[in-house]
Every structure is written in structure tokens, then in C-alpha cells.
Amino acid sequence: xxxxxxxxxxxxxxxxxxxxxxxxxxxxxxxxxxxxxxxxxxxxxxxxxxxxxxxxxxxxxxxxxxxxxxxxxxxxxxxxxxxxxxxxxxxxxxxxxxxxxxxxxxxxxxxxxxxxxxxxxxxxxxxxxxxxxxxxxxxxxxxxxxxxxxxxxxxxxxxxxxxxxxxxxxxxxxxxxxxxxxxxxxxxxxxxxxxxxxxxxxxxxxxxxxxxxxxxxxxxxxxxxxxxxxxxxxxxxxxxxxxxxxxxxxxxxxxxxxxxxxxxxxxxxxxxxxxxxxxxxxxxxxxxxxxxxxxxxxxxxxxxxxxxxxxxxxxxxxxxxxxxxxxxxxxxxxxxxxxxxxxxxxxxxxxxxxxxxxxx
Length: 360
Prior knowledge:
Blueprint: E1 4-6, E2 9-11, E3 15-17, H1 27-35, E4 40-43, H2 50-53, H3 66-70, H4 73-87, E5 92-95, H5 103-112, E6 117-120, E7 139-144, H6 147-157, E8 167-170, E9 176-177, H7 182-185, H8 192-204, E10 211-214, H9 220-228, E11 233-236, H10 250-258, E12 264-267, E13 275-278, H11 281-288, H12 308-313, H13 317-325, E14 334-335, H14 349-358
Parallel strand pairs: 3-11, 4-5, 5-6, 6-7, 7-8, 8-10, 10-11
Antiparallel strand pairs: 1-2, 9-13, 12-13, 13-14
Helix pairs in contact: 1-4, 4-5, 6-8
């Protein structure tokens, strides 16, 4: 496998570990992946929960209050600093969802904390370079699901005299939120192998933009398939949950280890797009009316309209994802990619990277 060049940074092994929140990919996982030669990605979601809410103001139930605490600047800095203790000066990234409240502030927080690369999905980040103009060495990677989306971003970024340093094209088999409607996720033309080629062609018209494939990639065969198609690298999320270094609670890992293929489904979400996860007690509780009452405490994403959409779908995504991070099996929301049922044991990041590279 050839190394992956993103901006001024060279990733020795062209594997990006997907950013997963809340608390699935923080300092231990991201730092370990970068240390092994891949690109570790810290999730900026819910950093107020880091180290038992050490860096955030919280309410009586322990929830970070409002977006300023849910997306804690001090906690993000601590996570990045602690990841650096593991990976040193090797490239390190952070994933910041475009749909969050305080997007501009969190991007600047990450830049000030010394991050090398920022990845953004959950919407079209047409003004992303506006918030990093004082940090020219920070590489920018949007996540898109079509060539049309890449074209729009490149046209909008032209006013900043900037093109993406790389682009991640994500198909509808990924974990968490999708870039398609429920019906679109099922269409053949939207599957990853079909949306990659037009994105590669569009990328060529704007310059040398590396294209990274994501969504449902599991093993060396998948990696080689997309590299042979012309991708410069791949992003893998779910499989890294099955590692010793993954920051998630052991209960969260066990949910995936116990999951069967039929347990993994697309769900409604307050964000407005379908999300893929494991059907657990939460989904049953929503259907029978016994799910925890929705109350907007953390004000996490603007499409939710401070809890309006959460009430419509029956759960608060910030509270339920944080419960999964804390290991609460009764009320946790457990995101996974379509292949999550294939996890069968917990191994180290070093072992996993070896398997991905060598196919053993």
C-alpha cells in the first residue's frame, strides 16, 4: 500500500480510522492508530463527558449544559494532548460534524489545540475554510456522498482560494448518520462502489484531490478493491470498536460482539437523516412508550431545534449516545456500521492494523 498524502502530512498506511462519538474514538484509540502509521481521528462530539465531566459544567444528572459544555474546548484540548502522548508528532485528525451547534467555534478550538487535519460530514461544509484561515497548515477533508456534493464544495471554496486536501466519499453501509434518505440508502446506484468512480472523476477536474472510500469497508480485500478503483485510501470505523484501545465502555463493545446481522438496522434520528445502529432496549422502549423523557440539556445539533425533532422520534441523541459511552444498556444508543455483527473478539490496534494491511 502506498502512503497517503493529505496537505503537508503523509500517512504511512492509507487507512483512516473513522471518527466515532460519543467517546468511542478519543485519545486512546486515535493516538494508537496514528502511532501505528494510520490516521487516528478524534471525535469532537460530547467532549464534555471526557474524564467524568472534568472539563464541563453539568446539571444534577451529570449532563453537560448547553453546547459550550457539550463541546468543551478544554476537554478537546486535553484529548488531543493525551493522544499526542501516544502518537508523538505523527499526523492526527479530529472529526467535527457540520450539523453541530458551535461548529465554527469547535473548529477554531481544534486548530488552537494543535490538530493537523479536520474532517467534517453531516452536511455540506461550504464555508469550512473560513474558520481555519489563520491556520494554513491544518488540512481540510469534507465527507460527501456524491460527485455533485464535491462539485458544490469546490465551487464554494474557490472564494477562499482553497480546494479540499482530500475528500471522503461515504456509502450507505456506514455506522451512525447517513448522507442519504432511508429509501436512497437501499438503492444500488448509491452503494459505495457505484458512487466512488464519479467522485474520482470530479476530483480530477479540481486538481490532485485524494479520494478516500468509506462505509462498509471491513478487511484487506475491501481495501485493495477500492485502492484498485483509484482511491488513495480508505476510512474504517466500526472495526476499530473491537480494539483494546477503543475509548468506549466495555458494555458498548459487548453489544457489538453479541449483535446478529438482523439486529443492525436503520433508525430515525433527531438529526433528520437515518442512522445505523444495533437494535437494543432503547428501540423497544421507544415503541412501547417507556423510553426516557426527552429534555434538551446539551443543545447538540441545530437540526433538532432544541429538542423538537428529538420528541418527534422519541429520544435525545446526545443523552442516548452518552449513555452508550457510559455503558448503560437500558437507555444507550449503540451505533455501528452494517458489518458490526462480524466483530467476534477484542484485539489490539496493532493487531488490527496488521490484519488490514496483510490480510491475515
